[in-house]
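Entry 12.
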Amino acid sequence: MKPTLVILAAGMGSRYGGLKQIDPIDAAGHKIIDFSIYDAMRAGFGKVVFVIKKEHEGDFRSCIGDAVSRHMEVAYVHQDMEKIPADVRIPEGRVKPWGTAHAVLCCRDEVHEPFAVINADDYYGVHAYRLLADFLAAPQAQEPGQLPFCMVGYELANTLTDNGSVARGCCRRNEAGYLTQIEELTRIEKRPNGAAFTTDDGTTWNDIPLDTLVSMNMWGFQPELFGKLDQAVTRFFAEEMMQNPLKSECYIPLEVGRLVRAGRASVKVLPSTDRWFGVTYKEDKPNVMASIQALKDEGVYPERLWE
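Predicted 3D structure (tokens):
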């Protein structure tokens, strides 16, 4: 059974502005998401599921999905604000989606096989998809009651931008290579001789090693995850949402971390040699375009992916 690629594309992208997931990044009109799907297809994935806002489906079909559907199965899932427990009322003024855990849960009726989860606006690299496909295709040894998950890890140096700060999940793993902790640092900046982070809005800064392994929200899961996420999202609305009704979200890394701590899941960290890049800020786009062209010049990609 071929694994499925779930692409999270319902976020609002406030730092960039506009629907950056379908913003072309080469002369042929490709988007970052095209290269992600192409890499996944070459690695052995058989289906792609777009998690989007309902009002964006037409754009995704015409700009991406119709071309991809000639090569692999394509499905669309809507992350609607109304997909919440019956006893929950949407806070007045809330427009932000409910977070990545809620987005993945929205796929439960469409995904029945091992699957990967990625962000729509991140370039992850060829090696990363091969790591995921190999993990999801092979039976995994596990402790009783534990679901076998995986996460692709990147060196921090390969994920920084020259145009502002980034948020990264810094990972710790045990000697066997399994995740033990993710520490979310929401403001990391590139420096001339390395990188530094702040947790107090810039009052103090701390150096962070460039070889720190970080999560870029690239996960491999089994379909049994959906039952766990159902419980997590229910708890989020009952206990956490009203603490910040307009902006609180239910995140995949936090919920996976809870499962690991409870002994209900294990997460194998798969270190990738690839360099991540993305258009976090509009100023990042020229560098992304140059990076894609360099990969084409090296023969990693053809000039046109879907022909």
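Annotation: The CA atoms of residues 67 and 306 lie 6 Å apart. Helices lie at 32-43, 57-68, 100-105, 126-137, 225-240, 252-261, 285-297.
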